[in-house]
Amino acid sequence: MASVEETWRGLAKDIGASEEKTSEWWTRIVQAYSEESRKFHNINYLAIKLENFETIKCKLKNRNAVGIAIFFHHFEYDPKMVDCFKKNLEHFDIFANDCAIKSESELYKSVVSLLESVDTHSTDEHKTGGVFGAEDGHYFLDLDMAVLGGDSEYYATEYATNIQAEYDFLPEPMYKGLRLKVLQSFLQIPNIFATKEFREKYEEQARANIQKEVEKLK
């Protein structure tokens, strides 16, 4: 399995980025994902997403676009902000300019579309029982949700605990109330995962994990 750096360098090479720009942006990525406030959305989480990316990249129409979008999805992360995705679009735009990726190129348009999709994080396939999605956008969103379907111990001790730590600026009662709304919304939709691969692998465990956290928060 390639390391996070190896994956980044491979993607950058595939899209024609210079060695200088590849290294420069790798330094920025490490700095961004190593911020002290990132108890969960850090370089380790990025590694988990990339591991899942490796398992499904053969299914993708534009694997380079999905790979690059993974790195920029949480390039800037601040739970106090509701529009981080806009900031990350700006970061990608700077990267694209540095690497001479034209705005009219398929790569540029695909990455932008993927990064914009995180604003709603939902597709028709999430809302309709028995329906699967197979577009790059479906896989991209599922990659971000796969952590919900981790084994129960990891979910409770690593994921849920560290997510709460990222919101330590909120009073605990407020955090619990907001978190409950998010988790209950997951349980109410027909599908947490849009694609067949992720739904079959993670849906059942994700719902069990979420239900346990809901009960704990209550």
Describe the structure.
This protein is an all-alpha fold. The chain has 11 helices and no strands.
- How many alpha or pi helices? 11
**What is the mean predicted local confidence, pLDDT?**
95
Strand content: under 5%
Low-confidence stretches: none
Count every beta strand, where a strand is a DSSP E run of 2 or more residues.
0
**Alpha-beta classification:** mainly alpha
| Main sheet properties | none
User: What's the gyration radius in Å?
Assistant: 17 Å
Distance between the termini: 40 Å
Overall, the morphology is: globular
Question: Quick summary of this structure?
Answer:
With 218 residues, the protein is mainly alpha-helical.
Offer a few descriptive terms.
single chain, about 220 residues, mainly alpha, globular
